[in-house]
Each structure stands twice: as C-alpha cells, then as structure tokens.
Design goal:
625 residues; mainly beta; Methylamine Dehydrogenase, Chain H; four-stranded antiparallel sheet; 2% helix; elongated
Length: 625
C-alpha cells in the first residue's frame, strides 16, 4: 500500500492510530528454552522438549547423557513419538511438526501441519499420526510422506484430548474430565468413538499393554482398564498416589507413573486388578513425562531436567544420569548487550542478546529460592528470590555471575526495584521492604511498611514507591526517607494488582480480575485517580517506554499507544508460545519472558522504515504526488 493510501485511511479513521501491515511487533530473536514436558527414546538417543526446542541426547552411557543436537520449533513441545528416522512432535498451538532425526546431531524440521485446538500428544502407526488436540478432539494425519502431512480425519469427544495411545485398530484418548475414550480407526479417514470409561479424576496420560489401558488420572492415580472389548472398556483396578499422576509408561509387568511433585512411582501391574506400588524416586521438581524400558526410565521434570533412572530393580529406582535445562522464565531485565532472566528454581540466567537473532546463554547462577523478579543497576543484578529473600549478584563479568550478599525478608520476595543505593522489595504478605545496598556484600533492611494486600510488584519514581498489592490495589508510598516509608495514597478498586510501571505523572497497573491495563494519574501522589483503561488478557507484567505500554499477559505481548494516557489504544500484538510473564524494553527492542518458552525479542511497531511511528503524520507533506 502507498503512503498516500495509508494516509487516506488514517484520516478516515482518525480516532485510532494507524498500525503497520504484517507482523507488529516483529519477532527478531529468541532464547527458546524452558519447561520440559515430553520425552521419547529410540535406540541410543532420547528426544525431549525444552521449551520450544526439541533436544536430541545421546544416552548410550546412561550415567552421562549428552545433548548432541536440537531444533527450535514455533510452539512448546508437548508430546513426542519417534518412528524410524522421524520424530513427530505435538507442538501445542503450532500443530504437528515432523523432524528428521536420521542425524541426531542435526535434527531438521521437514514437515508441518497446523491444527485446530492445541496439539498435546501424538501416537503414530501405519503411516498415520493420531494427535490429541485438546478441545479439538482427535485429529488423524496421513504422514506416509513425512514432508507433506495431510489431515484425513477427525472426531470430537467429550472432554479435552490430552493423551493418546494406539493399539491395533483402536486409539485410546485420555480426555481429562472425559475419562478414557476409545476410537475405532480401522478406517483412518472416518474415526469413530466406540466406547468410553469414566474415571474419577483428570485423565491426562494413557498407555496400552496387552488387553489393558493404564490411565494417569491426576489425583485419582493410576486406573487400570480392561479394553479386551473396546466397545465396553471396564475398570478392573486402581492405585491412588500421594500426588497427581501426570503420565504413565508400561514396560513388562510394571507401570511407571510421573507423579508431579512426588516424582517417579513404580507400580507392579502383573495382576491388573491389584496394582501395587513397589518403588519410589523423589525428585526436586515436577515430574511430567515418562518413557520406560525394563532397564531405564526417562523422566522429564517440568521445572527443568531430563532424568535417567535405572529401573532394572523396580523396587529401587535410582537416578544415574541428569541433563539440566532451564526452568520457568518469570521476569527479565536488560542492560547493555545482556538479558538477565529470573528463572524460577534455576536462579539467574544471563543471555547475550547483542545479536538478537542469535541470543545465547553465557552465564548462570543458581539461587537458593525461587527467582521471581530481577532488576539490574550498574554491575549488580538484584533477584527477588521468594522464600530466600533478596540476592545481590555481581554481573560485571556476565559469564560468571557471583553472589555478593543477601538479606532474608519475612515474606516471599516477589518483586524488586532499585533506585540509587536502595532496593525496594515487594514481599507479598509483608508489604514493602526497604534495603540499603550501598555495600552490596552486606545488604541491610533499613525500613518497611505493611500493606493491606499481597505486594507482588513495585516501581520507584521521584521519591515514591508504587506497589501492586494484589487485592490491595495500588499503594503509593513516600520513600524520600528510606528508613521511614509512609503510605500517602492508594487506589484499591483494581482487581488483583500484579505489576506496575510508572512514567511521568502516570502509573500503569496490570493484574488478575482487573479488566486489563489500568492507567492511574499520580500527579498528586496522595490522590491517585484512574483516567484510562484497556481490556487486555489477565495477569502478566507491564513496561513503559516512549509513549508505549507493553503488556505481557496470557499467551501474548500487547503494544499500547499511551501518547494520550486517558485513551490507551492497542496498536500491535503478538502471540507467544506460552504464558508471557515478564517484559522489559531496551533501545527499540522489547524482551518478553515466557513461562515455559524462555525469552522472545521483538522489534516495536513502526509504520515506515523512515521512523514515523503509528499515528504521527505531522511531518508529512500535504502534497500527494
């Protein structure tokens, strides 16, 4: 479209800023690593998800598993099946991906098909892939030509299809609240539900061995279902776990159950009507995916790991190998060429983003708590580490971050902001804590003030701290005397305030049950007044720069024009592979931390390459050639 044509549209729709055609904002780089949900094993290699990356690990020596290759996919890896030289990946909202793994050191995506719903799991047999597509039921894909997958059939079901297994001419679906569904696929182009068995819990995984289906049923444990007559599946036995059964794999006479926070459970199913637990392996994390043989089980940990477990003696499962992967990315701060990521139980991750298209982790420091927020000032990074308080990290050499000091806080350090030589910590149920960090090796709490809600986020501007206080809304604290903080104003009708950013005379608040972005006039700090709002997704984080608010919430980034704070207008958005949990700006780039998929880097919305931003036509010629 010509500039003249776009100008005409701008004039005709003057009340809304114009936005660029195409992707806006534009994805220019990513660091894709995060939650580990799924694993499949073939020969001497294990293939597992790591955020949006499919990793290939050599496990020929189980005690020293080694990542040898990877391929980045557009969605979070949810399910994996390997057949021959191909891995079939259930890639969430990005559908089914086919990856050539004939050379494990160089896996390559060779086929793809978008699907309705969200691909959660996949089974492959006889040239067909059967995809559990959440609320879109079962999708049948012809993969006889792996480079050209074609959907040939589908069937809707009761519940949400999240797990799948195939045996003979029948597909078995774990359908969460819908229990176990049995689908006849003798004619793949016309799949038909022929039977079902209700389960008392939330069916999230299924394996079939012989005449029995084994269903991971959440808090209702393992359900054993006789499927010798597929039209009449019948529960014959069960085992109740202490936690929540997420996935199951069967080898010989044992079922191996990923039991979330209670690790790996080994169940003797030699008598299907009387399953009994014979072995336990506790882990530090959340067990999500499982692939087992009679010798080894491969367990994925959602918070960041692939664990290799020797199970030759089922009564004594023993971890023998481990591959560490990043955990949840909860927040991000950017300084110079580096992004600093608060990475949940994995502490601080330092990523070189000097070349956004080649973002590379260069440093890592584990912290004792749960890293939920990060701020950077000079050569120090400050981590809000939940139950481990505030940690002060020397990042003068980004490749080797070193903890200098810490201060415990009475609550859970959820948010942090730094101004001068003072750090301000949002301490959840214990309000705002004021910490002197002039001596980084000896940070000292010098002041505090309780708040009525649950302090989750904090921003500091002009001698005031602005606290996102959960149901307590926005609290305005005078911190001109750090040792004696005093609340001088508040606005509490904001739902659950989770994060806040301040620019000039305005505070921008996002949270849960809040109706999206709320714009608060704080020109008189003692009397904050809401002056504008915009409906965005719930939760998330907010950053403000150069007349824009960047809202990370739900599965996406929203770009909002706030040149008139009383009339915020969305001018761009981009979906993200998982929940957007943190956001920061630096130069003309926007950095989004994502719960299960690491970090994505965007270039902001611009209309023209000559620098005119959306809606600004003041310098244009009135003459149209």
């Amino acid at each position: 479209m010509s500039r003249a044509g776009l100008l005409a549209i701008c004039v005709l729709t003057y009340v809304l800023p114009c936005v660029a055609e195409g992707d806006c904002p534009e994805l220019v780089g990513q660091w894709p690593y995060g939650a580990t949900y799924a694993v499949a094993v073939s020969s001497s290699h294990a293939y597992f998800g790591n955020g949006t990356a499919l990793m290939a690990a050599d496990v020929s020596n189980p005690a020293s598993p080694l990542v040898v290759g990877e391929v980045v996919l557009p969605g979070v890896v949810r399910g994996i099946t390997v057949v021959g030289d191909h891995a079939y990946v259930a890639d969430g909202t990005s559908g089914l991906k086919v990856v050539d793994i004939s050379t494990p050191t160089g896996p390559i995506e060779v086929g793809s098909i978008e699907l309705p719903g969200s691909a959660q799991d996949v089974a492959v047999a006889g040239g067909y892939a059967y995809v559990a597509a959440n609320d879109a039921g079962l999708r049948v894909i012809d993969v006889s030509t792996p480079t050209n997958p074609i959907e040939v059939g589908h069937v809707g079901i009761t519940g949400n299809a999240v797990g799948v297994a195939i045996s003979g001419t029948h597909v078995y679906l774990a359908s969460y609240a819908g229990g176990l569904r049995v689908i006849d696929v003798s004619t793949p182009t016309s799949p038909t539900e022929v039977g079902h068995a209700d389960t008392p819990g939330s069916a999230s995984g299924v394996a079939v061995s012989g005449s029995f289906a084994y269903v991971a049923d959440g808090t209702s444990g393992l359900r054993v279902i006789d499927v010798s007559t597929p039209t009449n599946p019948t529960e014959v036995g069960f085992w109740n776990p202490p936690g929540s059964a997420r996935a199951v794999s069967v080898a010989s006479s044992h079922a191996f159950v990923a039991d979330e926070i209670f690790g790996l459970r080994v169940i003797d199913v030699s008598v299907p009507a009387s399953p009994s637990e014979v072995g336990i392996l506790y882990i530090e994390g959340i067990a999500q995916g499982i692939a087992a043989s009679v010798e080894y089980a491969y367990l994925t940990d959602e918070l960041g790991a692939l664990r290799v477990v020797e199970v030759a003696n089922p009564e004594n499962p023993t971890e023998v190998g481990f591959i560490d992967t990043p955990s949840y990315s909860l927040s991000v701060a950017v300084s110079g060429d580096y992004a600093y990521i608060a990475n949940d139980i994995d502490g601080l991750r330092v990523v070189d983003v000097g070349t956004p298209g080649n973002a590379t982790e260069v440093g890592h420091l584990d912290t004792p708590g749960v890293a939920s927020d990060v701020a950077v000032a000079g050569d120090q990074a400050f981590i809000a580490d939940r139950y481990a308080g505030l940690r002060v990290i020397d990042v003068s050499t980004p490749a080797t971050p070193v903890e200098l000091g810490f201060v415990d806080t009475p609550g859970y350090a959820e948010g942090v902001a730094v101004a001068g030589s003072v750090a301000y910590v949002a301490d959840y149920g214990y309000g705002l804590r004021v910490v002197d960090v002039s001596t980084p090796g000896n940070p000292t709490e010098v002041g505090s003030i309780d708040t009525p809600g649950y302090a989750e986020g904090v921003a500091v501007e002009g001698g005031y701290a602005y606290v996102a206080d959960g149901y307590g809304g926005l609290r305005v604290i005078d911190v001109s005397a750090p040792t004696s903080p005093v609340e001088i104003g508040f606005l509490d009708d904001l739902g659950w305030a989770q994060d806040v950013a301040v620019s000039g005379a305005y505070a921008y608040v996002v949270g849960w049950y809040s109706g999206g972005l709320r714009v608060i006039d704080v020109s008189v700090p003692a009397f904050p007044v809401e002056v504008g709002s915009l409906d965005t997704s719930e939760g998330g984080a907010v950053a403000v720069s150069s007349g824009r608010a960047y809202v990370a919430s739900g599965y996406g980034l929203r770009v909002v024009d706030i040149s008139d704070p009383t009339l915020p207008v969305e001018v761009g958005s981009s979906a993200t592979p998982s929940d957007a949990t943190g956001v920061a700006t630096h130069s003309d780039l926007v950095y989004v931390a994502e719960l299960a998929s690491g970090l994505e880097i965007f270039r902001d919305c611009m209309v023209f390459s000559d620098g005119f931003e959306s809606g600004d036509t003041s310098a244009w010629s009135a003459t149209v050639p």
